[in-house]
Design a protein that fits this description.
By secondary structure, this protein is an alpha/beta fold. It has two domains: about 100 residues, Rossmann fold (3-Layer(aba) Sandwich), CATH 3.40.50; about 90 residues, Formyl transferase, N-terminal domain (Rossmann fold, 3-Layer(aba) Sandwich), CATH 3.40.50.170. It is built from seven helices and seven strands. It has a seven-stranded mixed beta sheet, with helices on one face. Helix 1 links the parallel strand 1 and strand 2. Helix 1 packs parallel to helix 2 and helix 1 runs parallel beside helix 7. The protein is globular, with a radius of gyration of 16 Å. The two termini are about 20 Å apart.
Length: about 190
């Protein structure tokens, strides 16, 4: 039976689109719904272009979860992917999807993780601390920000003259290359 994903995103949705395109021809996995906490986020336009239903979820919906749970059960959602989603996932959702909520973080955790550490905030911290390398961490979500079991880390170098823009581009390249196949391996119990 085909596994179905719900993707949660708060921003532009480039990772979301990459994941949707990766699974668009898959006989085993599909993206059933895209959720966002920002109704005007660019991810909504991407979802419309990809013809995937969207749902705007707020903190109250997440914490209560009953309404969302019904939608997910009707859509037969097997796993949740966080692709730049900025709200913390409450324990009620973690209990419903144990070891089935997958996140990507733009650093080599445990470095530069936690509340407020996302996107360019992470890259600025890496540059400020003159790190020689950074990368991505794909992990399962638990009750704490960026502390779930690490599934995969991939590194890239940070040049002495690296800019925020060039570093962001390097990390994004790793995200696009490794996030979709890692999701697939997790869902197929190969990791």
């Amino acid at each position: 039976m085909k596994k179905k994903l719900a993707i949660f995103a708060s921003g532009s949705g480039s990772n979301t689109e990459n994941i949707c395109r990766y699974f668009s021809e898959s006989p085993d996995i599909s993206v059933a719904i895209i959720c966002t906490n920002k109704k005007d986020a660019f991810v909504v336009k991407r979802a419309k272009k990809l013809q995937i239903p969207t749902l705007v979820v707020n903190k109250t919906m997440l914490n209560d979860f009953n309404h969302l749970k019904k939608i997910f059960e009707d859509a037969k959602i097997d796993a949740i992917v966080l692709a730049g989603f900025l709200l913390k996932i409450p324990s009620v959702v973690l209990e419903k999807y144990p070891k089935k909520i997958i996140n990507i973080h733009p650093s080599l955790l445990p470095k530069y993780g936690g509340r407020g550490m996302y996107g360019d905030n992470v890259h600025r911290a890496v540059l400020k601390n003159k790190e020689s390398e950074t990368g991505i961490t794909i992990h399962l979500v638990n009750e704490n920000y960026d502390e779930g079991r690490v599934v995969l880390q991939k590194k890239c170098s940070v040049a002495p003259n690296e800019s925020l823009k060039t570093l962001s581009k390097k990390v994004r390249k790793l995200e696009f290359k490794f996030f979709p196949p890692t999701i697939e391996k997790i869902l197929k119990n190969k990791i």
